[in-house]
Amino acid sequence: MSDLEVQAELSDRAARSSQPGRPRRIGAAEGVAGVLALFLVVAAAWPQLLAPGDPLGIDPLSAFQPPTLAHGFGTDESGRDIYTRILHGTQYSLLIGAAATAIGLGLGIVLGTLAGMLGRVVDFTVNRFLEVLFAFPGLLLALLIIVIYGPGVVTATIAVGLSTAPGYARIIRAQLISVRSTAFVEAATVLGRTRWQILLRHILPNTLAPLFVLATLGIGQAIVWAATLSYLGLGAEPPTAEWGAMLSAGRTYITSAWWMSFFPGLFIVLTIVTATVLGRSIDRRMRHA
Amino acid sequence: MSMTEPAAALTVRNLRVGFRADPVVRGVSFEIARGECLAIVGESGSGKSVTARSLLGLAGANARVSADRLELAGRNVLGLTDRAWRARRGKDVGLVLQDALVSLDPLRPIGREIADSLRLHTTLGAAARARRVLELLDAVGLPDPARQVQKLSGQLSGGERQRALIAAAIALDPPLLIADEPTTALDVTVQAQILALLEQITRAGTAVLLISHDLAVVSRIADRVAVMHDGLLVETGSSRQVLGSPRREQTRRMVAAIPADKPRGTRLSLTLRAADAPSPPRVPIPSAVPPASTAVLEAIGLSRSFRRPDGSRHLAVDDVSFALQRGTTLGIVGESGSGKTTTARLLLALLAPERGEVRVFGEPWSAASEKTRRGLRPSVGAIYQDALGSFDPRWSVAEILTDALGLLQRRRAPLTTARLVTLLDEVGLAAAVLPRRPLELSGGQRQRVGIARALAARPEILICDEPVSSLDVSVQAQVLDLLDDLQRERGLSLIFISHDLGVVQHVSDEIAVMRAGCLVESGPAARVFAAPQHPYSMQLLAAVPRLSA
Amino acid sequence: MIGRVAARLGGAVFVLWAVASITFFAVRLIPGDPAQAVLGGPGSQASPEALAMVRNEYGFDQPVLVQYLAQLGRLATGDLGRSYALNQDVGPLVLSQLGGTLLLAVLALALAWLLALALAAWSTRGGTVAARVGSGLETVAAALPHFWLATSLIVVFSIWLGVFPPVSTGGATGLVLPVLTLAIPLAGFLGQIMRESLLLALESPFVLSARSRGESERGVLWTHALRHASLPAISLSGWAFGSLISGAVVVETIFARPGLGRTLLNAVTLRDVPMVIGVVMIVAVVYILMTLLTDAATRLADPRLRLS
């Protein structure tokens, strides 16, 4: 099992146990998550709109200010406004998360499709290979990759992407195999459809649709892992306004300036909760719609 | 309070149960005497299960239960606290549910499940409880009790499980036993055995309340039958009276829907008419297409085996041969594990036989390549038990049917909605279902869409695998009538696979009886039913629930 | 039974061999001269003689296949090589760090189980409001990154309240915050899965049967439902243990606790390749053992699996 598979399993259970009655009604949690997602996207695309200041602008006179009206989230050791930095950092975090997810998902699709479509020998080989990769739990595979290629934002992003790929691959493979053996695929054979028609009209659409849910859930995971690597000094580096790097910088001043660590982390948590709630909501809607 | 009826094990006066604003049971009154069996019969949603659960105080946390009188063994149980209810459950009333595989805790040995009531209500020690469990298992007719107590419900057969569940319910010899669909998932022969056991329990002096959707089944043992419809008991009377001369429309429809013993061609579904109108005559409609002696589909010495998890091979279909004549129906009947479904898959060439072959219109079918077969595929349609699962969940009814018609119009000429509407009309559906997804339809509607899809390609042969098994009796009657009409209009040849001998008897011209992969008997339906040759056919036939009271 | 065990062990040996091979060949991908890396990386300006000596000592001048077989041979005898940075044998060094991490992971796993069970049992019995609160708490808990949770716990419990030390110096009090950091997010995951399966069990016909025999709500929970609810969570424990070890990298670093995670991070930062491989191999062994244990525990808890 990988983190991603656990996420997918949880989402699946939640979708199955939910009442199919009123799928179109938007719950409170979904509403809040929607607003937050919108806020994050705006912050990533046009940070100036929400935080007009300069994220790198130094003002030594107002260093280490606790949260006040002027600086809602306080200031850091160089007097930079933390709120401004967090908002301007949104694009880093989202971009890293999206890029890593794209790498993982892309590789996962290739491996999963190979295993699910090309017969037993390929399936067996790919499966054993994935099993071996699962023996590097969590961040370990990413750390191994960083030791080979050296630290940095790009390496960290690739490392996170590669280490999530086995999870995607296994879910895609399982999905392909289960769709392939459904009654509606059999019914299409009985109607006289060819293998290609069945593949294009039934198997691929029914396999790929859930990937959207998976990617939403996975992006949250990728953001945490990338931030963790930055926090450990292996990814983005200060003074970049990346959230993990900001937390890492705040670590030195934790006894005196808690806000330096607290607010960037809070945004990471909000992003992940948003991704989880939205992913599950899409999952539920796709099943009951 | 109930001095006037000392023998009543249960008295219910004006019972009402509602969930939020929704009344489900709307004023129900009945009583059961000791040694009597009352059956409440109704379709899904009629409120029969909720009634049964209210009698145990288990209607649910958000149910509002009220009644003028509700007495168990002569003692009032209205408004009991949960604690007081717990003291009565198991002791004054026992409950048997459908399918013991899920009604007994699958993680605990059956012996412990049965001993639970003894542990909760008596001061018996462990050894005494164990002895009593063995006695109970013996009493319900489970062979070799000492070995069975250690087993999990998953290790027992369907019939053994149901016996164990009954043993758990009667452990304290409660004056009232409620059995909610106790035989529904069982094979007919096992069903007959379980009914006999319930009858024996009634004879021993217990009051039995039987809840079922199947009038024919319960009439075998019930002294009185109450028909429930939309939260009300519409008719109560002796089994003979209710089945023989039903007074109410709902009852008449239910009786008419029972397929067994009705000659082929008799309509099973009655359209609603004024309550005082006489029930329509049951006239057998002669078959429009006289059976010609041309085989459209032949199975010749079919065999197919599967690998078991332990590596050994299990012969699912063993040297099966039969022929389907043009314009007729061949019914294949058998209990679970008889190889019916494997046969269906072999006939549809979804599975290749290991020996033997299938021929369609005299041409090779199973032996041909899928490419050659594809040209002939439109002639061979299929209807499945799980209609919902046979539709792509992303597609609407319109898309499903357009796709099914597509094979005839390869160049995707603009398909007019008119063609879809005609197709729907043929299966008795309105155009309003076109934009809906199968998930949003009822079970009967789904099966009609499934039939429409099969008809779209203008097939000559239809292979129906348990097409009505998951439907309510009245819906089953409508679907069977529909198939019958279509057969006459289009001259279809049908393979009709079912576990339900009553249904098969009603629809078939020829019958093939399967058991453990082998064809034990086949021949004209009338002959097989009148004079079965094989002992297994006789046994099956004896177990079929009939109306003849 | 014996066949099954043999198959599982065979699979484990295969995975270990593959892990060793992948790490060996992955290290060959490192750009530059490995001898240079031994002597402190490209910036160290080592003399050609020193480089030659290192090459000879570590076998870098041999053909790759010979090096690979030699490496496998050494691994088979438990020799994990020498650390570049510390110039010590990796094997004993890594083993000495294993205990601390295992203690942390086991305690966190146990605490997460307790928290998850308690939350699931409470939220399924307390009506819709409790169910929503429970589900919300679990979702948020599962989203907490270890590094942020750790710093927040330090701020509150060490700096503001002064109850627990911010640095894990031996003693039991030093363990509280690291264990909490690892346990809370895991409890979020386990709790979600337990609550779903508990609700499923409580609505199942066998629970209705039990109630019809006069079983109390507490009896239903303890004799039936909790056992069913814990099955999926038990089968997740292998994954959970892996993610705890991964989390230990962060937690041990923040709380300055000796252990595998911190050793690994130091080795990664210094690009001490044999050390990284050593830790990864040990983690793989522990992880595989945990997966086997999880498998055994699942079969123990679910008698149905023992039948087939």
UniProtKB/TrEMBL annotation, chain A:
The keyword Acetylation does not apply. Gene3D superfamilies: MetI-like. GO terms for cellular component: plasma membrane. Residues 90-279 form the ABC transmembrane type-1 domain. The chain crosses the membrane at residues 26-46, 92-117, 129-151, 211-236, 256-278. It comes from the Bacteria. PANTHER family: OLIGOPEPTIDE TRANSPORT SYSTEM PERMEASE PROTEIN APPC, PEPTIDE ABC TRANSPORTER PERMEASE PROTEIN. This is ABC transporter permease. It comes from Cryobacterium glaciale. The lineage of its organism: Bacteria, Bacillati, Actinomycetota, Actinomycetes, Micrococcales.
